[in-house]
């Protein structure tokens, strides 16, 4: 985002309050912005138990606010004269005119559902399902609907588990109910969970029931909360939403609002970027054992400069035989599978690192970064430099 050349100066250090019902990874991005463009006085407000309603409001006047509503709507947050950015409001929040008039960031939950479906479809699971959020939420419904819609395009009917409202239904009872469902569903199955918290609860319940993850139940979450995803065994695969980068964007827009460079009321949308694959989904259900062996070889070695001849040598069959069976089983060629994995890794490294292109080429199995750039251009319809500029604060 570009800033106006002649910025309106502040007469005092801005007092910025973050009203969140829980600790969020987006705080890193907000604090990073303050380090670069501050100084700001930042206060963390809210109840970590999930509520913005149980709090003492600061005596000093806020210069600006970044808000994510919890269980309760707090009238004090509706002061029209205080610039505010609201993140991912629910339908119940938008019923308040004051919220509808605020600047909002809205996550594209429909894109998340589609990405989850396409990720699992590549793995060729025989069964698919969705586990909803533990409180009624529009974003969970959107993720469910787009996930199931993408599956239906392939002629697949996905299963759905909708938990009872955990606010008035203890988790101990809900877990027993979930356990009965997990035992009853056909396996192996790919389960897409509404977010990482739901994914962890699914895996905990599987563990209690003696259900193997990912061999019987593969689990995919959303948000890629690294502590949550990494501390569990097996580790949880998750769809990356870049909350740290979004925090930087929240702060950028709030700064503009506080300086009077932008009016309240704009709506900004953002979406998922990739699936961060971990142990909870590291299996591919391919009926053809020859193709399965070839795919496993490719996934282990695609970071090296291997080609189709190396795959043929490993499987010890003719190219025609393997290409025909690849096409029948996966719907694409051997080379396309190698390229797909390399492009996934390359795009992630472009977003998350500042490594030079020559070094990226060696990490992604290419001898030459010029040729790698041509493949990338064809795959993503933009240059590697253009792609990297989209993620300046990752």
Write the layout of secondary structure elements.
Layout: E1 15-19, H1 26-37, E2 41-45, E3 64-67, E4 84-87, H2 91-94, H3 97-100, E5 103-107, H4 109-122, E6 127-131, H5 138-153, E7 159-161, H6 171-184, E8 189-193, H7 196-209, E9 217-222, H8 226-231, E10 237-240, H9 243-259, E11 267-270, E12 274-276, H10 289-301, H11 308-315, H12 319-330, H13 334-352, H14 357-363, H15 369-380, H16 384-389
Parallel strand pairs: 1-2, 1-3, 3-4, 4-5, 5-11, 6-7, 6-8, 8-9, 9-10
Antiparallel strand pairs: 10-12
How would you describe the overall organization of this protein?
- With 394 residues, this protein is of the alpha/beta class.
- It has 16 helices and 12 strands.
- The protein has helices spanning 26-37, 91-94, 97-100, 109-122, 138-153, 171-184, 196-209, 226-231, 243-259, 289-301, 308-315, 319-330, 334-352, 357-363, 369-380, 384-389; strands spanning 15-19, 41-45, 64-67, 84-87, 103-107, 127-131, 159-161, 189-193, 217-222, 237-240, 267-270, 274-276.
- The protein has a 6-stranded parallel β-sheet with strand order 2-1-3-4-5-11, with helices on one face. Strands 7-6-8-9-10-12 form a 6-stranded mixed β-sheet, sandwiched between helices.
- Helix 1 (26-37) links the parallel strand 1 and strand 2 (41-45).
- Helix 1 packs across helix 9 (243-259) and helix 4 runs parallel beside helix 5.
- The longest helix is centred in the last third of the chain and has 19 residues, at 334-352.
- It is globular, with a radius of gyration of 24 Å.
- The chain starts with 14 loop residues before the first strand and ends in a 5-residue tail after the last helix.
- The model is unreliable at 48-55 (pLDDT under 50).
């Amino acid at each position: 985002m570009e800033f106006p050349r002649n910025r309106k100066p502040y007469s005092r250090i801005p007092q910025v309050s973050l009203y969140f019902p829980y600790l969020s990874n987006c705080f890193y991005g907000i604090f990073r912005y303050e380090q670069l463009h501050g100084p700001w006085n930042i206060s963390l407000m809210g109840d970590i138990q999930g509520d913005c309603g149980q709090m003492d409001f600061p005596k000093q006047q806020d210069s600006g606010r970044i808000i994510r509503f919890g269980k309760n709507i707090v009238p004090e947050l509706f002061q029209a004269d205080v610039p505010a950015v609201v993140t991912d409001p629910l339908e119940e929040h938008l019923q308040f005119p004051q919220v509808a008039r605020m600047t909002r960031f809205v996550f594209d939950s429909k894109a998340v559902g589609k990405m989850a479906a396409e990720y699992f479809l590549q793995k060729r699971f025989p069964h698919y399902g969705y586990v909803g959020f533990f409180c009624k939420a529009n974003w969970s419904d959107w993720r469910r609907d787009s996930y199931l819609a993408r599956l239906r395009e392939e002629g697949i009917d996905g299963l759905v588990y909708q938990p009872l409202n955990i606010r008035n239904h203890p988790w101990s009872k809900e877990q027993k109910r979930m356990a009965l469902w997990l035992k009853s569903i056909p396996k192996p199955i790919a389960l897409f969970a509404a977010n990482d918290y739901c994914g962890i609860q699914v895996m905990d319940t599987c563990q209690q029931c003696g259900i193997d993850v990912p061999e019987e139940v593969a689990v995919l979450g959303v948000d890629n909360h690294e502590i949550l995803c990494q501390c569990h065994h097996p580790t949880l695969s998750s769809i990356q939403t870049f909350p740290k980068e979004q925090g930087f964007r929240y702060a950028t827009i709030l700064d503009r609002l506080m300086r009077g460079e932008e009016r309240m009321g704009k709506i900004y949308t953002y979406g998922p970027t990739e699936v961060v694959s971990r142990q909870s989904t590291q299996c591919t259900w391919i009926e053809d054992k020859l193709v399965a062996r070839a795919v496993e070889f490719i996934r282990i070695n695609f970071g090296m400069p291997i080609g189709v001849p190396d795959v043929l040598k490993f499987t010890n069959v003719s190219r025609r035989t393997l290409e025909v069976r690849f096409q029948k089983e996966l719907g694409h060629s051997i080379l396309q599978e190698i390229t797909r994995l390399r492009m996934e890794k390359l795009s992630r490294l472009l977003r998350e690192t500042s490594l030079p292109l020559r070094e990226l080429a060696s990490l992604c199995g290419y001898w030459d970064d010029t040729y790698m750039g041509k493949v990338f251009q064809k795959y993503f319809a933009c240059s590697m430099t253009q792609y990297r500029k989209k993620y300046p604060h990752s």
